[in-house]
Write a structure and sequence with these properties.
By secondary structure, the protein is of the alpha/beta class. The chain has a single domain, classed as Response regulator (Rossmann fold), CATH 3.40.50. 43% of the residues lie in helices and 23% in strands. The protein has five helices and six strands. The chain has a six-stranded mixed sheet with strand order 2-1-3-4-6-5, sandwiched between helices. A hairpin with a 2-residue loop joins strand 5 and strand 6. The longest helix is centred in the last third of the chain and has 15 residues. The chain is globular.
Length: 128
């Protein structure tokens, strides 16, 4: 039995954080931490070193793209896979890109727990 995966969700929408956290933790395969902003997420990522980061694209103060760039520049977090959660793309748009843009996984909001789990597992496989 493998250890629970440690995930960090960075999203300014508290309802999204709670829904994802609840859904993933119900599987008993994940421990989910949450951050409400890019700055908070950067600090938590350095402290927790999660297995995967779920990152909202549209947040005030710091976009998901800016947060991702800073994560990739920091030695502690550079190798952590990121899965973007975005309302900027429809599910059809995300599927037309094969769920990836510029080498990063994207999921259109709202994403179901099974889609999120598949993206997380795929990101981990690619990292190995």
């Amino acid at each position: 039995m493998r250890a629970k995966l440690k995930l960090l969700i960075i999203d300014d929408d508290r309802n999204v954080c709670l829904a994802v956290k609840r859904g993933l933790e119900q599987t008993q395969n994940y421990v989910v931490h949450e951050a409400a902003s890019g700055a908070e997420g950067l600090a938590l990522a350095c402290e927790l070193i999660p297995d995967v980061i779920l990152l909202d694209m549209m947040m005030p103060m710091m976009t998901g793209a800016e947060c991702s760039r800073l994560l990739k520049e920091a030695p502690l977090t550079a190798d952590i896979p990121v899965v973007y959660l975005t309302g900027l793309l429809s599910k059809a748009d995300a599927e037309s890109f094969g769920g990836e843009i510029d080498g990063e996984r994207y999921l259109a909001k709202p994403a179901c727990i099974h889609e999120i789990m598949a993206a997380v597992e795929g990101a981990l496989r690619e990292r190995e």
